[in-house]
Design a protein that fits this description.
5-stranded mixed sheet, Conserved Hypothetical Protein Mth637, Chain: A, about 80 residues
């Protein structure tokens, strides 16, 4: 499954908001440096979908706020 995520690093509160079936908005407290924000985004998405962190991967957009994320949902 693929989803599109718009990331907002350095936010005051962390949140994940579903805009449509495959589009999300993620706010994280971490800065967009040393891959800290990307790692936290992966953790939040994994928790939301109930999968392991290693089943979530950023496919495109490592250095951009707009990201394409792959989620491997084995149990569904």
């Amino acid at each position: 499954m693929y989803i599109k995520v718009m990331a907002f690093p350095k936010s005051k509160k962390e949140s994940l908001k579903e805009l449509s079936k495959d589009r999300f908005e993620v706010r994280v407290k971490e800065k967009a440096e040393r891959n800290m924000a990307n790692q936290r985004i992966i953790e939040i998405v994994a928790e939301y979908f109930g999968v392991r962190v290693k089943d979530v991967k950023i496919i495109n957009g490592h250095h951009h706020p707009s990201k394409l994320i792959s989620i491997n949902k084995i149990n569904n």
